[in-house]
């Protein structure tokens, strides 16, 4: 009898080992190794006897306009202008964040046939969701199946333009002895789907689960196979959801889409600044409005700081939505070049609305909110503060300054404080523009 060979594979990164190990040497995750059966084929590949088609690039006809527009503008923009036929999109996100909802909403408005393969829910549950979301489509077909061969036959029969696989962790290939959700099954099923999509020019949206660490479950290798990797993120305390492209073969990865989860489904948010500023308390020291760029869009948001005397030897420094190490650097800069005594104070920073910002252009606003809270002085609530702060306390220029100013104008702000080096040629009739060189100059301007 043929002996079955097994290997231990890290379910996180795909690292292979002959024996079980507790900690993966590649990605450092614990207890991630599972035993999987491997079939080795050592024979050399046979020469191909069929017809091979090699084409000159000039002879291939393909237009960007071939993209399928889903009608959900936020989704289309993140993809780079709609679904690309023949492409495979991986949609990952935390449990219950709304992946199935997004996949259904974006595909139900199409004029072409859509096959929704559900391995997790029954057709009845899908129907109930579609009624709640008020989706009406003549072209939406549902298949409750987990066997890949059946799915492929269904695709052959229906000839859909878009196939949704919800989720890849439930789909399996009979020929493999591994159970669904294992690295081998996920990798194999994804590449078969990818191959079918490329040959028959349909688009596949694969829903993938996310592990505790926020990575798409299954090996990283899955991210290499697919054309686009989208992450659907959100904070469980807020109804806002952000769709981010982590990899995109057919578009930029800078774009984000913002949605709100309501009972009737995901609602696009076209004017996010208004929402992030809506709960602003204008009478509290320690808050200031700043501007960040997400993708190609400017976003105004509120930076909050709370500075309190510390009773212990080590003051606390806590930030939410802002890089903790960056905060330590800014505090050191403020102490040395901003003449603020912060060493015996606790400093808490928060980006209102649950957003996470890693752009250095909000540094100056963070510094201003700290100074405001420490001195208990209000910053004029019609002012927007923009700028990166260097280690010498200097205020450095930021990109896309005109977009940021236009957004502030649009929302009725009266003054914008920005790096002096950004001033070149900037003019505005409705907003006062002030250029600053360093933090001290900024403080004398706002207080
Ligand atoms: N009746 C409802 N009213 C309001 N919101 C609802 C309702 N039903 C579901 N939701 C929202 O939809 C979310 C679940 O959406 P969905 O099933 O699309 O998530 P998912 O990411 O596919 O989850 P899973 O990982 O379990 O597949 C819930 O977290 C909730 O926010
Ligand atoms: Mg789901």
* Approximate helicity band: 10-25%
Report the top-level CATH class of the largest domain.
Answer: Alpha Beta
Number of domain modules: 3
- Overall pLDDT, averaged? 88
Rounded to an integer in angstroms, the radius of gyration calculated over CA atoms is: 26 Å
N-to-C span: 84 Å
Query: Structural class, from helix and strand content?
Result: alpha/beta
CATH homologous superfamily classification of the largest domain: P-loop containing nucleotide triphosphate hydrolases
Query: Within the largest sheet, what's the order of strands?
Result: 6-5-7-8-4-9-10-11-12
What's the main sheet like? Answer: 9 strands, mixed
Describe the model:
With 447 residues, this protein is an alpha/beta fold. The chain folds into 3 domains: 34 residues, no CATH class; 206 residues, Rossmann fold, CATH 3.40.50; 172 residues, Ribosomal Protein S5, domain 2 (2-Layer Sandwich). It is 25% helix and 26% strand. It contains 11 helices and 21 strands. The strands form 4 sheets. A 9-stranded mixed β-sheet has the order 6-5-7-8-4-9-10-11-12, sandwiched between helices. Strand 13 and strand 14 form a beta hairpin. The longest helix has 18 residues. The chain is elongated. The N and C termini lie far apart (84 Å). The relative contact order is 0.09. Bound molecules: adenosine-5'-triphosphate and magnesium ion. The site of adenosine-5'-triphosphate has 12 residues, from helix 2. Adenosine-5'-triphosphate (ATP) binds next to helix 2.
